[in-house]
Design a protein that fits this description.
Shape: globular
Order of helices and strands: EEEEEEEEEEE
Number of helices: 0
């Protein structure tokens, strides 16, 4: 059972930055991928960004392209989400997840394990 622990959420003003971290308790079977999703109140969980551990594939939702960057530290089994130029519409609970069995990285059902979520609030 892989455990994922997120950190780095908080309250930030529009235009500000935050970096989320997600540490995995152990190495998962490779090849695998890790992703970030978010869920705002009353909305479905949506894809934000994902990366294959081989780093051969990285992708972002259109709404965050150019503002968010996903990266990994393989030695620490950790994935990061650097979020810049934050907007009020980025406010949500952010979840990291890991999967290994799907060709897609874009849907919640592509992932096997989830973190507990961390709140990001963008407000003046």
């Amino acid at each position: 059972q892989v455990q994922l622990v997120e950190s780095g959420g908080g309250v930030v003003q529009p235009g500000g930055s935050l970096r989320l971290s997600c540490a995995a308790s152990e190495r998962t079977l490779r090849p695998y991928y890790m992703g970030w999703f978010r869920q705002a109140p009353g909305k479905e969980r949506e894809f934000v960004a994902a990366i294959r551990w081989s780093r051969a594939s990285v992708d972002y939702a259109d709404s965050v392209k150019g503002r968010f960057t996903i990266s990994t530290d393989t030695a620490k089994n950790t994935v990061y989400l650097q979020m810049n130029s934050l907007k009020p519409e980025d406010t949500a609970v952010y979840y990291c997840a890991v999967g290994s069995a799907s060709a897609s990285m874009y849907y919640p059902h592509d992932y096997d394990y989830w973190g507990q979520g961390t709140q990001v609030t963008v407000s003046s």
